[in-house]
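Supplementary Methods, section 5.1.

A reviewer requested that the exact input to the structure prediction be made available. We therefore reproduce it here, unchanged from the version used in the analyses.
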Amino acid sequence: MPADANAYGDIFGGWLMSQMDMAAGLVAARFSKGRAVTVAMDGMQFHAPVAVGDEVSVFCEMVKVGRT
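The structure derived from this sequence is encoded token-by-token as follows.
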């Protein structure tokens, strides 16, 4: 069983969230032409398990730009 899967063969949600964070970070860094960080995440709801071998695609859209 791969390291990012549980005993049932489902991918860990944390791995999926990491992929989403990396994709969002790339979009933010391209927009800002510099460093960008994830400050907070309000929540995540998974609707179905992702099995080892499933194809996962991540799409991003810039919704808000702020300053910290």
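Residues 1-68 form a domain with the Thiol Ester Dehydrase; Chain A fold (CATH 3.10.129.10). These observations are discussed further in the main text.
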